[in-house]
Structure formats: C-alpha cells, structure tokens
Amino acid sequence: MKQYPPVPRAADAPPGLFDSGHLWIQEKVDGSHFRFRLRESGMLQFGDRMRTYDADRLPSPNGRRESGDADAIPVPYHHAVRHVRERFDREALRNSVGDVSSVVFFGVATHRRAIDYDWDRLPPFLGFDVWNADEKGFLPPDAVEQIYDRLGLRSVNTLRKEVRAADFDPESYEVPDSAWYDGPAAGVVVRNKTGQRATILHPDFRAEDDAAPVEASADELARRYTTRQRVENIARELEDRGRPVTFDAVYDRTVETLAREEHHRLFDGDRSIDVSAFRSAVAARTQELLEN
After folding, report:
1. How far apart, in Å, are the Cα atoms of 155 and each of 65, 107, 114, 136, 267?
2. What is the mean pLDDT, run by run of 10 residues, along the chain of 292 residues?
3. Would you call 138 exposed, middle or buried from its count of C-beta atoms within 10 A (0-12, 13-18, 19+)?
4. Domain extents for the chain?
5. Nearest by Cα to 100 from 109, 90, 108, 110
6. Domain 10-205, CATH among 3.50.50.60, 3.40.350.10, 3.30.470.30, 3.30.1070.10
7. Using CA atoms, how far apart are residues 215 and 55, in angstroms rounded to an integer?
8. What is the Cα–Cα distance from 160 to 187, expressed in whole angstroms?
9. Are 77 and 255 in contact (CB under 8 A)?
10. Residues β-bridged to residue 108
11. pTM of the full predicted structure?
C-alpha cells in the first residue's frame, strides 16, 4: 500500500511552493497518521505511516492473544477502524474507479496527544489526501474533499482556498483557532494542486512531549479510566442508536474510547503498557460496572 511522503516544515518547503500558483490552507489535526484501501475482495486494509495490517479484524475481545493477533490492528487505531468500516461507501468507490485497490486514502486517526479536542464532535478519522495509482499521483485538494464526502467520510477542514502564493508569507502567518475545540490549531498544512506541501506549527505545540512513562499497573489504569460515567455514556449511546447493550459492545467501545481520549497517557512517546493485560483489566472493570 502506498506510503505517504514526509511533509517538511515551511522553512524547508519544496522549491516554488510559495512562489507561484494558488494555495490551500488546511488545519493540521493532532493525532496519528492512518491510511487504508479497499481490496478487490471487498475487505478493507489499514495501515499507519510505516506498517500495514493484513488482518482485517480487531484482536480477540477477551483481551487474550489468539492465533494471528500479532498482525491485528493496534488498539490506538480501533476507533478509526470502526468509524471507517461503518461509514465507508464501498459501492460508491467501485462505481467510480476500475481498480479499487489502486486508490489509497490518507488521513489522521484522531486521538489525544497534545490537544484535548471536543471528542463528541471530532470524527475518529479525517482524510487529507487520496492517491490514485492509475493516475500516478495524489489528487488535487478540491477533488479530495469531494471524494471523502461522496464516500461517507469527513476530510480535514480547509481554512482558506485558492490563496495566491505570492500574497502568502509563511514567516508571518499566524495559526488560527481549531475547528474542533476552543483553542489554537496544532498547525496548518499549506499545499498546492501539484502535490507540494509544507507545515506551519503553532508555537504552543512545537516542543517535544516529555511526559513520564506509565508506571501504574494494568488494574490501576483500568480502574482509573474505566469510570462508571464513561461506561454509562457508552451504554446510553448504544441505546440511542438502537443497538443492543451487550457486554461485548460496551467493552469494545470502552477500550476504543480510552485509547482515543487517554492516548497521551497510555501509548504516546516512551509510555508502554501491557496491552493484553490492560484490555483484560478493562474487561473485568466493565463487567463489574454493568452488573452493579
């Protein structure tokens, strides 16, 4: 599956990006790089920046490793995987291209790193690019927006369109507020229709994260973050959507919510947890709250 090229800072922008033509300025949403494509079989294949996951499933729900789990999709991406699977219009893609596997979708899995977004409003996945191997290139930004909308997904929000490059000064540009919480955006991505791109980061988010590694046990973490309110909110959401409130349904979404909203404490940087033990502890805690 096609890998996404590195996007340089504005100071190292590709020659000509800020010299001529027109620019699109899009919000850089804090999260992790995420990509997927539709196989001819109708199954979706997912990947992060470097690795692809051939198992088109999530790990076993009981938290124990089973045959093949080593190739399963990592927990921090489960929320994005579910979102794409539930909303992606496979037939719309099949009706628009000859070889569906030649199209790769790139975006961000939105989980908490430096910014605590309004998670109820922010989609688990936002697309920012589409690669079409048949056309041997990335599609222009206006086409990307239309494609994601047609396929049932959201694209990153565009702050300004068709800005004359000659009128844009990256050194004096001030990163605006985010569309997804009450605060500044992590930065912006400036791009043109030829595929050239550069990022401008907000000064508040340029420093490296230096938080301490996780030291609590899996049981302690599960009790700390698997709160009664969180479990009740998930159960209520299932009811509102007309879905059965089963243990498996509540548990799966609890793990996904924790990995999304507490990602910076559980998975980022030097933090490392025993994922299998953590999932088992969350399962036990979820069962306890559902029974009491």
Report:
1. 34, 8, 21, 21, 25
2. 94 92 96 95 92 63 39 88 95 93 97 94 97 90 96 97 95 96 97 94 72 76 94 94 93 95 83 85 95 86
3. buried
4. 10-205, 218-291
5. 90
6. 3.30.470.30
7. 31
8. 14
9. no
10. 33, 126
11. 0.90
Alpha helices in the chain (DSSP H): 78-87, 90-94, 141-150, 218-225, 228-240, 247-261, 263-266, 275-291
Measured CA to CA, the distance from residue 176 to residue 161 in angstroms comes to 15
pLDDT at 206: 66
- What pLDDT does residue 153 have? 98
At 140, phi and psi to the nearest 5?
-65, 155
d(CA 193, CA 141): 7
Q: Taking a C-beta distance cutoff of 8 angstroms, is the pair 111, 32 a contact?
A: yes
The Cα-based distances of 109 to 64, 77, 122, 160, 289 in angstroms read: 25, 7, 10, 23, 29
Environment class of 126 (CB within 10 Å of its CB; exposed 0-12, middle 13-18, buried 19+): buried
**247's tokens:** 């243990």
Strand order in the sheet with 187-191: 158-164, 22-28, 187-191, 197-201
Bridge partners for 189 per DSSP: 26, 199
Whats the size of the chain, residue-wise? 292
Query: Which run of H or of E encompasses 154?
Result: none
Tokens 């498996």 locate to 248
Alpha carbon distances (Å) from 253 to 24, 52, 110, 228, 268: 35, 23, 15, 14, 20
